[in-house]
Every structure is written in structure tokens, then in C-alpha cells.
Amino acid sequence: xxxxxxxxxxxxxxxxxxxxxxxxxxxxxxxxxxxxxxxxxxxxxxxxxxxxxxxxxxxxxxxxxxxxxxxxxxxxxxxxxxxxxxxxxxxxxxxxxxxxxxxxxxxxxxxxxxxxxxxxxxxxxxxxxxxxxxxxxxxxxxxxxxxxxxxxxxxxxxxxxxxxxxxxxxxxxxxxxxxxxxxxxxxxxxxxxxxxxxxxxxxxxxxxxxxxxxxxxxxxxxxxxxxxxxxxxxxxxx
Length: 238
Ligand code: URA
Known about the structure:
This protein is α/β, with parallel strands linked by helices. 45% of the residues lie in helices and 11% in strands. The chain has one domain: Uracil-DNA Glycosylase, subunit E (3-Layer(aba) Sandwich), CATH 3.40.470. It has helices at residues 3-19, 50-58, 93-98, 105-116, 142-159, 169-176, 182-185, 203-208, 212-237, and strands at residues 77-78, 84-88, 125-128, 163-167, 190-192, 195-200. The chain is globular. The site of uracil has 13 residues, from α4.
């Protein structure tokens, strides 16, 4: 068994214990919305190489109307064994042009924050709730989110990160399956499929509200996420 396989196995076992309530993590009570589109393959839990299968299954997707206006599918990028997965809302103009997540102004800020935590972008994984650009950068519609959600779920299953960080309201609301007030909820721990989930503000919101308070809030959230990821990594490698 490779080191990565061992890590995955131990992490899964720890999550199993956590699911039994043994480490005191809060249990997820939200029910994910029913999704209409289901991928043809299932993803073995913790199998990072399955990311390629997920991308193959997505193909040149036409499952929702967003494909009509897109230039490129922005699947996500980074480390298939990432300790943290960052999830945004949907690609903007620059992401649609390049096919890469978070490479515009908001992405530059996110990258700086990731670096300030001590990571390179290649250490972690970045993706979005929807993989095609909503016209005019509007919020993705429920049917668009529902079409993409199975693929996001399979990405998370494949990576099996220690921690998920959601950026902005749509990402946390989608993963928790209910409408979330981001200002009240950011900075508090939740869970997606036994994976600790930390909601924080979207970097685009931060750019529009660049105050000491908002910067401090996001920094606190990201530090907490890294700390949790480091703790879980240490347990997995012990
Ligand atoms: N905003 C997002 O939510 N995602 C991106 O990839 C870029 C901007």
C-alpha cells in the first residue's frame, strides 16, 4: 500500500469514528437537495486518481443551459491529495477564458491568502459549485447547481480532504443543503459527509468590502481551517 493509500485509509477510519461521535465533531443534519443528473460512474471513497474519471464523466457537458455561453469548462485544479479544498461559486470571465479556477482579481486575493497560510496553490485544490460561467456573473440557478453537484461531490470523495473551505453563501448553502446566512455562519464549523467544513466570505466580497474587520474575519477562518487540517494530518500520519 502506498503512503497516500495508507493516509486515505486512516483518514477514512478516523472519519468513521467521528461519524460515531467519538471525537465530538458536530454531525451534519442537513439533507442535500435531490439532484436530477447523476454521473454514470461511482467514485471509490478516498481514491484521488478517480478525479480523472470524474472529469471524463463530465465530458463536454450540456446538462444545463450554462454550456451555451461558456468558452471553457472550469473543472478545478490542484493537488488530488489536498489537505484543504476551497470551493467558490462559479467561473468568472477570466476563468472562462483560461479554463482555470480563481485566476481573476478575486483569485489573486485567494492565492495571496493561500500563500500566507504557507501553501502553494499546487498544495491544495480549488474548484467551484458550477463549472461553467453564469452569464454576467449572476448567481447560479438551482437547476444549474443541481446538474453540477454530483460532480462536485465526486471530486470531494476522490480527494477526501481533511477540511473543506466554502467561499461565499452559494457554496456553503449548496453543500449544507439549506439557505445559509453567511455573515452569521462564517467562522463556525460544519460538516459535509464527515469532512469538517469552514464557511468564509468570498474573496470578491472581500474586495468590495476591504475593511480591517472583513480581512481579519477571513484570515481567522482560514487559519482555523489550516490548523484543523494540520491536526487531522498529524493524526492520520501518527
Ligand atoms: N469566483 C468564483 O466563485 N470562482 C472562480 O473561479 C472565480 C471567481
